[in-house]
Structures are given as structure tokens and as C-alpha cells.
Amino acid sequence: MKKLQTILTPIFLAIELGLYIIILFFPSVLPKADFIGVVATCAFALCFLKPTFPNLLLNVGLLTTVCADVFLVLLSPPLTYQKQVASMAFFSITQIAYFIYLLCTEERKIVRLIHLIVRGVAIVAAEIILCLVLQEKIDLLSVLSLFYVANLAVSVAFAFAQGKKGILFGIGLTLFLCCDLFVGFSVAIGEYIQIAESSWLYKLVFSGFNFVWFFYLPSQTVLATYLALQSEKK
Q: pTM of the full predicted structure?
């Protein structure tokens, strides 16, 4: 397994870097390079698939991410409401898989208990705030989105709480969260919330630079690399 990782990882990283440059600066050169990049991270991770529960959970997370992008990237445009809901449902499954992974790999019982409490409170609080803010505008997409973001934010915190062994996983999830903040604001502004076009947030979100994939592909690359490294240790 270590020999396989030594051979494949540099090749994988080189491919991802090439696709990253194309996505950000030369998108017309290779249509759907973004989707190819996500599929490549999943394919790389599958090379290190092992019949252990934690390993399987990481693979499930990367696989359901690809499923989400089938609706969000491969089958779009047009990006319909139904596609957004389907995509967010798969992203939510991704975060549930990462949540269970963090619980399985946390050896401290008190931390596992705190993790469960914090996650439960975060999800409930996020949905209550959503109801208060959106009121009659609330829909399935917004409910799923807040559930997803709340889970991801908590996972970021508890990945770093694992110390040295969780740093790389935490970095991957943080990049994932940064990507989703840009996605969320781009969808919410104008549809759910109103922000002045002169504000810095509006200008940043709609600057024209592809901030979503600036964070997204690196997040999946880091998570897949983390999986490969963990497979080597087990």
C-alpha cells in the first residue's frame, strides 16, 4: 500500500494541479474540467479502499461528493431548483459520513460526547435561525443547506480538535467550507437576502473570479490525499 501511494500520489497531484489551472484560468480549454477533477479525487481514493469502517466512510464521503456534482456540475446548466436539492442531499450525506468518521477515530469518550452535543445544538440552532430569518421564504433547499453547513462547520472544529492526526483532514474540510460560503452567498443574495451592490461582500461574491473552485478542488484533493495517508498507517 505504501509503494502504491508513493507512485500514485505525485501523479494524482500533478493531474489535479493541471486541472486546477485550467478551471481557474483557461476554462474553455477543457469543458467540465471541474467535474473531471472531482471524479479524479474519488478514483484516487478508491485505489486505497480497505475493508475498515473509517476508511469506507472517507470513500463514501468522496463518492457522494461526486454524486452531488453530477447534478451541480455535469448536468448543469441549467441549474434548476430540483438539481440543487438533489445535490445538497448528497452533500449532506457526505457530511454525515465525515461526522461518523470523526466519532470513530476519536479515542476520548468525553470528546465524543461533547461532539454529539455540539453538533446537535448547532443543527437545531441553525434551523431555528433559518426559520426566523426566512419565515415564509423557507424551502427544502434552504433547510438542507443549513443542515449541511452546520455539520461541516462542526466537523472542521472537531477535526482540528484531534490534534496532529486531524490537521490535514481539518484543512480539507476548511477549504470545503470556504467554497460553500461562496456558493451559499451567490445563491442567497437576491433570492433569500438583500445586500447592496456597493457592499464589499456583494463585490467579492460576484467579482467574476471563480472562488468556488479556487477552494473546492483543493479541498477534495486534500481529503483524498488524507485518505491515502491514513490507509498507509492502518
A: 0.93
